[in-house]
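Justification of computing resources. Each target in the renewal requires a structure prediction run like the one illustrated here; the chain below, 170 residues long, is used simply to show the kind of job we budget for.
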Amino acid sequence: MRFPCATRLVILAHDMGARMMKYVERVLQRLGLSLNRDKTRIIDLREPGAGLDFLGFTFRFDRSGYGPRCYLNVVPSAKSLQRVREKLRQMTRSWVKLPLDELIGRLNRFLRGWRNYFSFGYPGLAFRKVNWFVQRRLRRFLVTRSQRRGRYLPGPSLYQALRAKGLIYL
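Resulting C-alpha cells:
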C-alpha cells in the first residue's frame, strides 16, 4: 500500500548503528512504508552546532549555565518565527482599517494560539522577540491609521497603553 503524501519520522536514540537502521526498515516495511535513503540523515546532537528542525521547533543541545553539563534545548525554529512575523505583518498592514479594539482582539486570538503551541521547551527569547515585533507593528499601525498621523494612546508608555487596551503579551 502506497501513501500519496510523504511521512516524516524522527527517531531519537543513543546509538543509531546498522542494527537500529535494520530494525527501523523492518518496522516500516510491516507498515507498508519505505525509507528514502536520499532524504534520510543521522544527526548527532552532541556535536557543536548540530540541530534538528521538526514541526516548527529546533532541537539542539546547549551548554547549561550551571556548569559543564548540557541540556536539550527546544525552541521555536527560525522559520516559525519568520512565519509569525509575516502573519502579524498581514494583520497590521496600512490598508487594514479596523478599530484598534477589534484589531487587538484578532491579534490576541492569533497570539494565544501561537503561544499555546510553542509553550513547550524554552520559548522565552522567541516570545520576547514576538512581543517586541507586535509592539513595533502596532506603533506603526497607530501612526498611519488615520489622516491625523502621530496620535498615540494615552499612558506612560506604549507597552502599558496597549496592555490597558487588552493586548496580551507572550
